[in-house]
């Protein structure tokens, strides 16, 4: 069994929680309070700035030009396609680009991005991929699932978000990360695989916590 298939089995309980989360359900049926989406957009923008840096670290750790080029393309796609969508949403909400970039990250945003960057900076190329894969893979799964719901992708606020994560391009980049992880785990020791699984499951859990933080729409519970 490929390493990604083993991980896929282990993450099922968390993914089910993600798909059932009221934030994701609210995007699916169009009932999510736009204020919660606004809060999410700003935090997600801050998240993506750091996430893009993990792709840059992938290019640094890659040992062939093809892989370097792919990570460079992922970095470009994040900064210019995915974050471009966030900038469009921000404009709709009357948030300037400066305001977006200078907003304060919530403790969950900080914890998630710092964990990812720590794992990527200190780890092997396989560890870089293990840290970012849940982000790409889980959004692709959510995008595809929501895209099947009649009318969801036509929603005037949430439709573009669904289109982005259900898109062929987004799927191809998620699949490339899955394949690269499989390629880089062939022949690894049990201890190395256990470490990769731990990183992967931690960022998978952070994905759930990010939805929860966005749904609560507050920087931290004491600040409600
Ligand atoms: C928190 C989070 N995780 C993943 C993705 C998809 N790149 C995202 N935009 N935001």
TrEMBL record:
Domain of life: Bacteria
Pathway participation: Cofactor biosynthesis; thiamine diphosphate biosynthesis
Role: Catalyzes an amino-pyrimidine hydrolysis reaction at the C5' of the pyrimidine moiety of thiamine compounds, a reaction that is part of a thiamine salvage pathway. Thus, catalyzes the conversion of 4-amino-5-aminomethyl-2-methylpyrimidine to 4-amino-5-hydroxymethyl-2-methylpyrimidine (HMP).
Subunit structure: Homotetramer.
SUPFAM superfamilies hit by this protein: Heme oxygenase-like
Coiled-coil region list: none
Reactions this protein catalyses: 4-amino-5-aminomethyl-2-methylpyrimidine + H2O = 4-amino-5-hydroxymethyl-2-methylpyrimidine + NH4(+); thiamine + H2O = 5-(2-hydroxyethyl)-4-methylthiazole + 4-amino-5-hydroxymethyl-2-methylpyrimidine + H(+)
Source organism of the structure: Domibacillus mangrovi
GO annotations of cellular component type: cytosol
GO biological process: thiamine biosynthetic process; thiamine diphosphate biosynthetic process
InterPro entries per record: Haem_Oase-like_multi-hlx, TenA_E, Thiaminase-2/PQQC, Thiaminase_II, Thiamine_Salvage_TenA
Keywords, in A-Z order: Hydrolase, Thiamine biosynthesis
Signal peptide: none
Record's protein name: Aminopyrimidine aminohydrolase
NCBIfam families to which the protein is assigned, alphabetical: salvage_TenA (TIGR04306)
Domain Thiaminase-2/PQQC: 8-216
Example GO molecular function: thiaminase activity
Pfam families given in the database record: TENA_THI-4
Active-site residues, Swiss-Prot/TrEMBL: 207
